[in-house]
Write a structure and sequence with these properties.
heterodimer; A: two-stranded antiparallel sheet; B: about 0% strand; globular; MetI-like_sf (chain B); Putrescine/spermidine ABC transporter permease (chain B); transmembrane helix (chain B)
């Protein structure tokens, strides 16, 4: 057997280029954003190297806090709907004959692999004033003025649910499919009804899947820029749009950096909670 | 296995099909409209390829498509090389042990950091080191997340790899380099290709990071940037045709990737 030492040396050589790339173009840039978030904005959009906490204070101004809270609300609604719609779908797949499950799952994931912009644009076609849904309403006898279903919080939530529901279904499915089939029978044999079995046995065991799916949708939604931009228009501003504006139009990079770090902090917190839930579930099983 | 009652399982099945309808109807409508002669979303006026023909004459779209191809191929190539080496490095070190590695966290990061944050971070960085923006900066940026994805796919492949073959090869007198090249690489190659195809579609579809790091001007506009501009500033029916073609490319690449990745399970 080759010596462990040789393995380690070889492994270090293999790791260096890739980790180097990530250190240079991922870690360093992120650290730079962290630094920028604590300095002052220069007169002409540049950076003034003076330490300040003002960028973070500003993020909690009522105006910006409002946008943060609205983003959180939209992301929470998207998460809620994605789980409510996605859970029964994942459940249906998990209960389908085993050889069919991969196909069902693949059909769920397939749209996810097409372009995000295009999937969002498809909803513009359906929802706008001259769009298909208005046409459909007119055909069904609606005679009022066409309604623009776009540029509302609801259309943004719809777009987010549409784009991210595949993740939720996948995450919930993977925890459901791990549940032993015999567990169902045992619960049945002991006299529990179908609903009781679900509520007391299956649902608790699928909590890690729900948590993983929810965190994913929430994190992706709260930091989302395109959906709010295309389906929300000027009416619905989210943090992503605010960051965008700080970097490309307002040219206040330090403030934009602070907002980015608030996003990252929220994300890390949620991932931590999710990891805790997953660990608790794993320990419960052991 | 005991099944839930017939009624509730019928309801579940119906729900699943509704979810499929929700997922696919918008896309199918778009594809259908791309063949609509009038180009209007509301009335069908006959089948026509005219919007595809219009695309073929749209210089901006063609140059954006070429840029996207350059960016996707370059960043995929970088990711295949570095991502595969990383996967080998991490898995060779772990070999059997189920211990975490610092690299794990670093490799998760590009997949979960919000796109917009990665976009502004890279923009700040390129700006600080005074590197001009253009196709090259998009390639560098895309390689960041592509490395993570290729590495993940190759690592899954390595999980099923029997390391004793490597030791056998070494014991029989082959050098490490020969062993890597002649034994390991052929075994993981389908994984590398599958990861590469995945990376390719991700790069073809990526918008925000490219948008922030492309600099200004048509010279470094990628296809998603072009699509964004078409959506934002006047929807022309050409976009339906373009959308259909782009979806076709990503889905073909994805299907190929799935196929490659599945191949070994038939034999094992």
């Amino acid at each position: 057997m080759s010596s462990l030492h040789a393995d380690r040396k070889l492994s270090a050589w293999l790791l260096t280029p890739g980790l180097g790339w990530l250190a240079l173009f991922l870690v360093l840039p992120c650290l730079l954003v962290l630094v920028y978030s604590f300095v002052e904005r220069g007169a002409y959009g540049g950076i003034e190297w003076t330490f300040t906490l003002e960028n973070y204070q500003r993020a909690f101004d009522p105006l910006y806090l409002g946008i943060l809270l609205k983003s959180a609300k939209i992301a929470a609604l998207a998460t809620l709907f994605a789980v409510l719609i996605g859970y029964p779908a994942a459940y249906a797949i998990a209960r389908a004959p085993r050889h069919r499950q991969p196909v069902y799952l693949f059909l769920v994931m397939l749209p996810f692999w097409s372009n995000y912009l295009i999937r969002t644009y498809a909803w513009i076609v359906l929802l706008n004033r001259e769009g298909l849904l208005n046409k459909l309403a007119a055909t069904l006898g609606y005679s009022g003025d066409p309604i623009s279903l776009l540029y509302t919080e609801s259309s943004v939530v719809l777009g987010l649910v549409y784009n991210y529901i595949p993740f939720v279904i996948l995450a919930i499915y993977s925890s459901l499919s791990r549940i032993n089939g015999e567990l169902w029978e045992a619960s049945r044999d002991l006299g529990a009804s179908g609903w009781m079995t679900f509520r007391r046995v299956i649902l608790p065991l699928s909590v890690p899947g729900i948590a993983a799916g929810s965190v994913f949708v929430f994190v992706l939604s709260i930091g989302n820029f395109i959906t709010a931009d295309l389906l929300g228009g000027k009416q619905v501003q989210m943090v992503g749009n605010l960051i965008y504006a700080q970097f490309l139009t307002a040219r206040d990079w330090p403030f934009g950096s602070a907002l980015s770090f608030i996003l990252i902090a929220i994300m890390l917190l949620l991932l931590f909670v999710q990891a805790l839930l997953a660990r608790r579930a794993a320990e419960g099983k052991a | 296995m005991s099944q839930p009652s017939l009624r509730s399982s019928a309801a579940l099945g119906a729900h699943l099909w509704l979810v499929y309808a929700f997922l696919y109807v918008p896309i199918l409508v778009l594809i259908l409209l791309s063949f609509n002669k009038s180009g209007l979303p509301t009335s069908w006026s006959g089948f026509s390829f005219k919007w595809y023909a219009a695309l073929a004459n749209n210089k901006a779209v063609l140059s954006a498509a070429l840029n996207t191809l350059i960016v996707a191929l370059s960043s995929t190539f970088i990711a295949c090389v570095l991502g595969t080496l990383l996967a080998l490095g991490v898995e060779l070190r772990r070999k059997g042990e189920n211990k975490g590695h610092v690299a794990d966290t670093l490799l998760m990061a590009p997949m979960i950091i919000p796109d917009i944050v990665l976009a502004i971070a890279l923009l700040s960085f390129f700006n600080l080191v005074k590197m001009g923006l253009g196709l090259h900066s998009i390639v560098i940026s895309h390689a960041v997340f592509n490395i993570a994805f290729v590495c993940a796919v190759v690592r899954t492949r390595l999980k099923h790899f029997d390391y004793s073959i490597l030791e056998a090869s070494i014991d029989l007198g082959a050098s490490w380099f020969t062993t890597l090249r002649r034994v390991l690489l052929p075994a993981i190659f389908p994984g590398v290709l599958a990861g590469g195809l995945l990376a390719f579609t991700l790069s073809v579809d990526e918008f925000i990071i490219a948008f922030f790091n492309s600099g200004s001007g048509q010279a470094s506009t990628t296809l998603p940037m072009q699509i964004y501009a078409m959506i934002r500033f006047g929807v022309t029916p050409e976009i339906n045709a373009l959308a259909t073609l782009v979806m076709l490319v990503s889905i073909t690449a994805l299907l190929a990737s799935q196929r490659l990745n599945k191949a070994p399970t038939h034999h094992e």
